[in-house]
Amino acid sequence: MAVDGIHASGAHHASSAAATPRMDFSHSVGKASESKEVGSIEKAGHSKSAEKSSEIDTKDKTQISKEAKEGEDVDEKNPVNMKELMGEEEVEEEKEKTPEEKLDDLKTKDEELQKEEEAKQKELEKETKELEELKKREEELVKQLEQAMKDGDEEKIQELQGQLQDVNSQIQDKMQNIKDLKEELGEIKQNRAENNKQQQELQQQIQAAQQAAQQQAQQQAQQAGGDGGQQAQQAAPVQQAGGNNGGGGNNGAAPAGGCNGGGGGAAPASGANGANGAEGTNATNGTGSVDIKLTADDQKVADFINNYLEEKQSPAAGQGAGEMMVKYGKEYDVDPLVLLSIAGQETQYGKAGIGVNGMLGVGAYDSDPNNATRNPQFSGIENQIRRGAETFSRLREKGGSSSDASIADQTAAVNKAGWATDPNWHKGVTSIYNQIANKALDAGIAEREGGGAAAAELAKQFEGQTTYNIQGLDHLDKSIGYDLNCANFVSACLQNTGGIEGHYNNCSGLEAALQKQGYVQVSADQAQPGDVWFNPQRGHTELVKAAGNPPVLIGSNNGGDNIQEVTTDSWSGRSGVFYHKT
Q1: Whole-number Cα distances in Å, 431 to 83, 282, 290, 341, 427
Q2: Less Cβ around it within 10 Å: N or C end of the chain?
Q3: In this structure, what CATH number is given to the domain that contains residue 458?
């Protein structure tokens, strides 16, 4: 369920109780039944909007409704005439659905199944908690019975035996309920898995159609003549500072490993390919992060956060949120700017959705987002920050990451471990963090960690992929085709990790932007991961993947068929220049 477009998230726990050993008493009217240990259930939900579809699922129409065939007997063994059931116009409408519309229907169905799954999960947690309480009661009765037997109190023994029998019966009922609920949950998950499979098939179908259309457009453009210049006409018409709108381009292919043509199209307008800058809107930018180290004292960091909240017109401004984020960030070894980023992702810093009292979304379940503001354990700015830091730290460890890892790795681990049901939640948080981190660098309260290594780490995620078909790398301009992507790829990796402002599809524009934004030339033996290399003609560029003698490069390279792929190669024997950000 969406709350004003913002998704709430939370975590819920049910502690497990060990099974109680049973004792055989001479006066017992029946053995206490053996109970199985029920593991704790941990859940962190992330709500999604679910607008129920009014479309009729023809697959579920196995019999004629009373409205459609009132008073008529139907032989269910005979095939159903869909036109009689739904009306001819409705059947035709169902047949005419596009793959995109079918995909939307499947997504709606998945949201409904998700709601059902969350309701069953919540019921399972309730039953499990009640089972644990019954088991504790059983243990108490066993102890009392042992004492009564020592005392020889026959009346007490009989009374306790009766109570034990009742409790054992209730335990059996609870265990059966839990078993049934688990089976129902299994069926729902199986249905969701099948639904997701159908979604993937449709997405592949849609993507294949888009690629075929793009390839046809490219062939038509190439027939019109001119490689670089023609590709430039296909690029977005908006020019960025330092970029070239159009450009000559060399006819014919570049040497192996180089770009095809020296020209290129204009960069798209900033943010045209993603939501970088749209904080709190579930952005899905590339997963690389701007990793920094806070160098200022605690109060300066708190002041920075407070000022940032004030700039964002957050209702949390002026309430000591900065000091709280620093305090609990240190207590749980979590970057306080990560807590600020989560507040941006979940509620736009308390301005939207469940508001400032649930600003980090902790304690908000898909089925009950307002639990975050109604439950005194979670409600309020300090509770949200404290519980948010504790939950992030715990799920980070559970997801296989640590505070030493990149922010992108940490948020991905936390998402994987269960903070949110939205698989892209971590990308939105990382995108917001990158913006805040760059402001922290500008404010002088932090320094960059590991140089530009984040760009190289991001590039490595796409190694072996055809550049044009890369999914999940925002700012990559796919309008320029298969063979002109070297600067496009390097620029996208830098842009997604805060290494550069703006996007540039040609080498000359990218080099000019680097020079303006604080990059300086260094020798090959000084080149570090994330540095940028250009060949002498400025017709090809790659990122430094690993330092060394010679350094290792990674970039979008031609494989001899004029279709570029992301590959690794050695700089050995080449010339050119390296740029490093100071």
Answers
A1: 50, 9, 9, 9, 6
A2: C
A3: 3.90.1720.10
- In our burial notation (b when 16+ CB lie closer than 10 A, e otherwise), range 447-457 reads ebeebbbbbbb
CATH of the domain at 390: 1.10.530.10
User: Does residue 442 sit in the same domain as residue 510?
Assistant: no
Helix or strand run (H / E) with residue 331: helix 321-331
- Residue where the block lists tokens 């006819």: 251
Q: Is residue 561 part of a domain?
A: yes
Total tally of structural domains belonging to the chain? 3
Q: Evaluate whether residue 250 is within a structural domain.
A: no
> What would the two tokens of residue 454 be?
């984040």
Q: Are 288 and 496 in contact (CB under 8 A)?
A: yes
Q: Is residue 437 part of a domain?
A: yes
Q: Are strands 519-522 and 532-534 parallel, antiparallel or unpaired?
A: unpaired
Do 517 and 543 lie in one domain? The reply is yes
SS (H, E, C) 471-535: CCCCCCCHHHCCCCCHHHHHHHHHHHCCCCCCCCCCHHHHHHHHHHCCEEEECHHHCCCCCEEEC
Q: Judge contact between 399 and 414, C-beta under 8 A.
A: yes
The encoded tokens of residue 572 equal 């050995």
Neighbours of 310 (CB within 10 A): 13
Range with the poorest average pLDDT among 94-98, 362-366, 376-380, 384-388 = 94-98
Q: What is the spatial distance between Cα 324 and Cα 334, in angstroms, rounded to a whole number?
A: 12
Residues 190 and 213 in one domain: yes
Q: Mark whether 434 and 459 lie in a shared domain.
A: no
- What are the pLDDT digits (tens) for 76-104? 434 444 444 444 444 444 457 888 788 88
Residue 183 identity: E
Which tens digits make up the pLDDT trace of 34-51? Answer: 333 333 334 344 433 334
Q: Are 163 and 141 in contact (CB under 8 A)?
A: yes
Task: Provide the pLDDT confidence category of residue 248 given band limits of 50, 70 and 90.
Answer: very low
pTM (2 d.p.): 0.40
Give percent of the chain above pLDDT 90: 33
Within this chain, do residues 464 and 441 fall inside the same structural domain, yes or no? no
pLDDT at 497 over 70: yes
Q: Which position has the higher pLDDT, 271 or 447?
A: 447
Q: Cite the DSSP H helix spans in 96-239.
A: 99-151, 154-223, 228-234
d(CA 518, CA 531): 12
Domain range for 168 is 11-23+40-48+97-219
Residues 518 and 432 in one domain: no
- Residue 331 and residue 351: Cα distance in Å, rounded? 27
Last-in-domain residue among 219, 242, 261: 219
Domain termination residue (choose one: 388, 418, 449): 449
Kindly state whether residue 465 falls inside one of the protein's structural domains: yes
Q: 59, 64, 54: which is closest to 87 by C-alpha? A: 64
Pair (395, 491) in one structural domain: no
- Kindly state whether residues 472 and 547 are assigned to the same domain: yes
Cα distance from N-terminal residue to C-terminal residue, the chain: 46
Do residues 335 and 407 make contact, with C-beta atoms less than 8 angstroms apart?
yes
